[in-house]
Design a protein that fits this description.
alpha/beta; seven-stranded mixed β-sheet; 14 helices; about 25% strand
Length: about 450
């Protein structure tokens, strides 16, 4: 029989769960605390320029099969554009370099891509083969990324120019503390399967426009409800089950099942004390890692490339929004990204902009002729889970001792780092669990 399901949280995981459940005929009520959907992946309108600004630039990969299926189901996949083959342009003070994989079988295409990089020595390229051989080994899963590359004899040069930029971008954590297990997962997912799996995808629309309204419309067209500005204060436990959630105004909302699709911190605040101090106490040991986005508008273009990895600087990535967005106003808007940004998240907007301009001018001399006309800084202090060796064992699965409380979110134990794919996967998993209860069969 159809079930009434309350989903708490309107990001990728909550919306993915809501779409899947409503498609299966269940009664969905999605509750989002803020006045907009999107969780930690949303966009907003800049008041001065009218441009849409993402709260942080998100890249997709063609191996994100669950995300692709989700966007396809809600009719939004056409808003995402993938490369024909994996390519990343890199820039340092010496000039340009590129990692580009030719159309060879996997994983030979990766080796060929590394061999083509000008900034790597022959020794760097040969020693990189050790990483490929070690990907399926489990005896070093307790190491940090830096320790793992130490044992594999990777030079400082290839770490600085290739491995570490990839690790920081995908794990949002410093290599000295980031989990080697999760780094292996990234490399296996991207490069060890279908050779197209590593193709990078970029949303051609603002992030919220990519999926939030499409998912809302899908749910509501099937009788579900999506409510923003609806804060859940706490979960009410009754005889070993969650009987209802209490809203901010004290109103109870009942359901057969409850899916928590919020961050681990938010979940802890909603739980009854006995659960917070018991089964879920380990969640207090999980940490998050920040991302800082520095948006700059100039009076002239500063690059014609869509996105660039920056080497040897504090700023790490540059995204050319005019080249990326299909409806761009050609306002010469670029976004500068700093991941694992703990040392920068408390800087003032002025200091961050000054630093970004200084380093941009060093890397792209042509930018010195451009005049800055506007800036906006976005700090996501809890952008993602901090992927440490400890977090690998602390991340909980979807099921809990409370039979009708299911966990979702990129931070749960999906087997992937805390990416958009992890979020969507967790939402789909939660939906399958709910649907399969009491004799339902999931295809």
């Amino acid at each position: 029989m159809p079930k009434r399901v309350v989903i708490i949280g309107g990001g990728f995981s909550g919306l993915a769960a809501g779409v899947a459940l409503s498609d299966l005929g269940h009664e969905v009520l999605l509750l989002e605390r803020r006045n907009h959907l999107g969780g930690r992946a949303y966009s907003f309108t800049d008041a001065k320029t009218g441009d849409q600004v993402d709260n942080g630039q998100h890249l997709f990969m063609q191996c994100y099969h669950e995300t692709v299926a989700f966007l396809d189901k809600i009719g939004c996949l056409h808003k995402l554009k993938f490369q024909n083959r994996p390519r990343i342009d890199f820039l340092d003070r010496r000039g340009w370099d590129a990692f580009e994989c030719p159309p060879l079988p996997s994983p030979l295409h990766v080796l060929a891509g590394l061999l083509r990089m000008d900034g790597l020595s022959i020794g760097d390229k040969l020693r990189a083969l050790r990483v490929g051989h070690a990907l399926r080994s489990r005896d070093q899963n307790h190491l940090t990324v830096a320790q793992w590359f130490d044992r594999l004899g990777q030079s400082d040069n290839i770490r600085r120019r290739f491995w570490y930029p990839m690790a920081i971008a995908t794990l949002n954590e410093k290599p000295e503390v980031a989990s080697a297990l999760m780094m292996k997962v990234v490399l296996l997912e991207a490069f060890d399967g279908d050779r197209a799996g590593g193709n990078i995808g970029i949303s051609r629309v603002a992030l919220s426009d990519l999926y939030t309204e499409g998912a809302r419309s899908f749910i509501e067209a099937r009788g579900g409800q999506v409510r923003t500005g609806s804060q859940v204060n706490r979960l009410i436990e009754e005889r070993g089950r969650i009987g209802s959630v209490e809203m901010k105004d004290g109103t109870p909302v009942e359901a057969d099942f409850f899916i928590s699709a919020v961050t681990h911190d938010a979940l802890l605040q909603m739980l009854p004390a006995d659960l917070r101090n018991g089964e879920f106490a380990c969640l207090a040991a999980l940490r998050s890692s920040p991302i800082v986005s520095i948006n700059l508008w100039f009076d002239m273009p500063v690059t014609d490339r869509e996105f660039v990895g920056l080497i040897g600087t504090r700023i790490q990535w540059l995204f050319n929004k005019d080249a990326i967005l299909s409806n761009a106003q050609h306002s010469n808007h670029i976004a500068i990204i700093i991941s694992a940004a703990r040392e920068f998240v408390d800087w003032t907007r002025e200091a961050l902009v000054e630093m970004a301009l200084e380093e941009l001018n060093q890397l792209i001399p042509e930018s010195r002729s451009a005049k800055l006309v506007h800036s906006a800084v976005v700090k996501e202090r809890d952008a993602t889970l901090a992927h440490t060796v400890e977090s690998d064992r602390l991340r909980p699965g979807p099921r809990t001792s409370i039979s009708n409380l299911i966990l979702a979110g990129d931070w749960t134990a999906t087997g992937l780092p805390a990416t958009i794919e992890s979020a969507v996967m967790s939402g789909h998993t939660a939906a399958r669990i709910v649907h399969a209860e009491k004799g339902h069969t999931v295809r």
